Each structure stands twice: as structure tokens, then as C-alpha cells.
Amino acid sequence: MEHAMIQTEVLEVSMSYLSSRV
Fold it and tell me: Within 13 Å of residue 3, how many CA atoms lie on the same side as its CB?
């Protein structure tokens, strides 16, 4: 399930990105 792992990583990065913007 490589796709699932990548999806989770992207989601985590997105959260950090949103937090940084705020």
C-alpha cells in the first residue's frame, strides 16, 4: 500500500503547511 503511505505523508505535510500559514 505505497499509495496509502504517500497519501498520509502528503496529508501530514499539508497540515504543517496550513499551520505555518496561520
Answer: 0
Mean pLDDT of 1-22: 88
pTM (2 d.p.) = 0.46
What CA–CA distance (Å, rounded) separates 11 from 3?
A: 12
- CA 22 from centroid of its chain's CA atoms: 16
DSSP letters for the chain: -HHHHHHHHHHHHHHHHHHHH-
- Work out whether the CA dihedral 11, 12, 17, 22 comes out positive or negative: positive
